[in-house]
Amino acid sequence: MAVAEVEKIYLAAHDSIRETLVETLQKKGLVHIVNLRKELSETELEELIGDFEPDSKDVDFVLSRVNFVLDFLGEFQKKEGGFLSGMMGEKTEVELSEFEKIRAKVDLEGIYEECESLEGRLNAIETELGKLENVRKELKPWMPLDIKFIDIGETENTIFAIGQFPVLNFDKAEHELEDSVIESSLDMINKDSQFAYVLAIFLKERSTEVNQILSKYGFQTTSFANLDDAPEEEVAEIAEQIYNLQEEKKAVIKKAKDLVSLKSDLIVLKNYLENMKNRAKVQLNFAKTEKAFMLEGWVRKEDVARFKKEVSKLSTEVDFTFADPKENENPPVMLKNNKWFTPFEIVTSLYGYPKYGELDPTAYLAPFFIIFFGICIGDVGYGLILTLASLWLKKKFRAKETIRNFAVLFIWGGLASMVAGALTGSWFTIETESLPLVLRKMIILEPLKDPVTFLVFCFLFGFAHLLFGVVLEMYDNIRNGRWIEGIFREGGKLILLPGIALLIVQMLSMGKEVLPATLLSVAKWMSIVGVVLIVWFTEPNAKSIFGRIGSGVYGLYGMTSFIGDTISYSRLMALGLATFLIGWGINIIGGIANDMIPFVGFVIMAIILVVGHLFNLVINLISAFVHPARLQYVEFFGKFFEGGGRPFKPFALDAKNLVFKGPELLKDDKLTSNLR
Amino acid sequence: MNETLLLLNGYQWAVLAASLSVIFGGIGSCIGIASAAKMSAGVLAEDPDKFGGLLVLCILPGTQGIYGFITGLLVVVFFGLLGGDGKSIVLAQGVRIFLGCMPVMIMCLVSAIFQGAVSTAGVGMVAKRGEAAGQGMILSALVETYAVLSLVVSLFLIMAAQAG
């Protein structure tokens, strides 16, 4: 319900313990480190080594090898987990003690070399296979040729040549050759739509003539340099080679697959190395002299004692001082709520963190958020599905904080939807008339029969929400010592707004007397008193009376925004009706399918209902989160919340794929959550 | 009963109202979603992990099509266009139904297109910072407000037309 108090820390120590200290800081995750070097660089301390940079090249090198192995093995891994797990990015749990020993445990050199050789072999096999396939393709038209390739070429007196003609030229070439050179033969071995594949035999002494004729008709010589036997035998041999290579490939892949089981360890190692890199990186924030180093950061007040204990355990050559944040400083902000409200921090943090010392709105927005969410979904069946699904998600993804928090949010939202659904008679969007009497008795309002009342309800909720925002501003002002503004200005708003609201209701009822006359005169006086208070106290510290009244009138003008803000809550009604109406449409379509289609109509109806209602739930779920959130941000926060704080991010173990557990870790959920 | 305005009788005006509500809402949503989804496809090519957040951003301009569908469906059910009752809609009532659907027709068409533009910008934001998906969603929902308001008014106008 508040923002955690922090203290500033300066720490100076001998250089010999730098690495161990950084390691401890990372493991305990207590300090939000800020860049001291930049701050000091302006003071030009001579002893400072400005460009000090811890060496992380070795880590980079090892990390690149791990990444190579992971990439390589990733290709051979069976796809595990469904679409959902893929989307959420599952994490594995690991004992912290195991994590620290991982480097000794994994024989990275061995695995790397094996993977590298396997990859090399696989590539070689692929290249070879490609080559063989090519030769096989080229040989294909030559299959009917029953001469060995070794015999093709020159003998003492004759020349054997193979090659191809464009198929249309073959006859002409054959004739011309027959006419001019008798001692020659041109045999067509094979042909396809484009080419005639021929064997030409002629005397060596006539070769010039023959070659001239052949090239005239586009003859291209073919040669198979490395082949000796007849095409058929060669093809058989190639087939055998391909078979052997493929067998070898299978064996290599199997070897690689056997290595896949090492992947989980490698992932841990990868995270370990990345954390080593972070340790080097964080030191870029340190100020460093030849023999010593200094760091600056923020620690939560409640952690100060623990921090002192952990650091003094390391060495006596450490010196630190603590200080409260100064006026002009902007300390990082950590929200502090009890476990019921913690999940709602995602709604707050989506907007931004409060400034240090400002009110944390999380606990105040939670109940309204849930109510609005419930109105937007507003169906018992949908609420039930949502609650059950969220319970399952919460259990399955308990290691991922964001998903767990969303799940808790939706559990509450689902429960609220069930309440809203029961009160408005929406059970899987079945028509109210067909509900059993028991359920109908629970109904206090039927939105479709009486939409105006529903709308007024939404406005009432909204108006209460806005007034609550004003109360919070009042509280914040008083808390920070601005008594006059808090009590008189915000008090004025709290008097004016209900008064005006009553007058507007009377105005809209067009002469009918919906409100008793006494109430109306009270409302009138409330409005007048409110106006006076707001005009006079909007700017109590103004220099002149005109300035004071001028800004007061301007503040009064600002009150008109409440009208638009209240109307904005009509979206709750529209979204609530939308859920019901779409579901209702689905029920109608399902009913038609059941009536019109013989025999299988029932099955089709079931499919339509299940798919349709799930679709409706998902679509409305998004709206039911986004729109209530907007009502918090724009309408509610606008009344009291400033924001603009930066989150408290302690330097800590940080692992994308892992969740740590173990006795060494702090029991503080909030801090360890940074590990997730 | 056979009075006509611009060649359409009351029943036909009601049918036209239902059809155009669905059509215009659908057109708007298609344009909006297509704009955001095209850009998402580009982001996903580089970074498939961002699918969840991008999907939500892409769906957001889809609500207008649904609002159009609801309006059309309400007209169909309320005025008995499915059965024979619809034939008895008089001209005045038919035209009222049509005019009552106008807010949804126009506002859903326009707001979905612009919401798509904002969602597309949100996709660009997510491409740079994955955690910005929520903020992109809220920005996109700011535009949707006016489609919601038009739905509220159209619902009331249709109910009023039914009441007589």
Features:
heterodimer, A: about 675 residues, alpha+beta, Alpha-Beta Plaits, subunit c (vma5p) of the yeast v-atpase, domain 2, five-stranded antiparallel β-sheet, 14 strands, extended, disordered C terminus, B: about 160 residues, mainly alpha, Four Helix Bundle (Hemerythrin (Met), subunit A), 5 helices, elongated
Give your account of this protein's structure.
The complex is a heterodimer of chains A (676) and B (164). In chain A, helix 14 packs antiparallel against helix 24 (601-640) and helix 15 (380-396) packs antiparallel against helix 16. Chain A has 25 helices and 14 strands. Chain A has helices spanning 18-28, 36-41, 57-74, 83-88, 96-100, 102-105, 108-139, 170-180, 207-216, 231-259, 263-282, 304-314, 345-351, 362-377, 380-396, 401-424, 437-441, 451-479, 483-508, 517-537, 545-558, 561-568, 570-596, 601-640, 669-672, and strands at 2-3, 6-14, 31-34, 92-95, 153-154, 158-166, 184-191, 195-203, 220-221, 287-288, 292-300, 318-323, 335-336, 658-661. In chain A, a hairpin with a 3-residue loop joins strand 10 and strand 11 (292-300). In chain A, the strands form 4 sheets. In chain A, strands 2, 3, 10, 11 and 12 form a 5-stranded antiparallel sheet that branches. In chain A, strands 5, 6, 7, 8 and 9 form a 5-stranded antiparallel sheet that branches. By secondary structure, chain A is of the alpha+beta class. The longest helix of chain B has 38 residues, at 91-128. Chain B has a single domain, classed as Four Helix Bundle (Hemerythrin (Met), subunit A), CATH 1.20.120.610. Helix content of chain B is 80%, strand content 0%. The mean pLDDT of chain B is 88. Chain B is mainly alpha-helical and 164 residues long. Chains A and B meet through helix 18, helix 23 and helix 24 of A and helix 2, helix 3 and helix 5 of B.
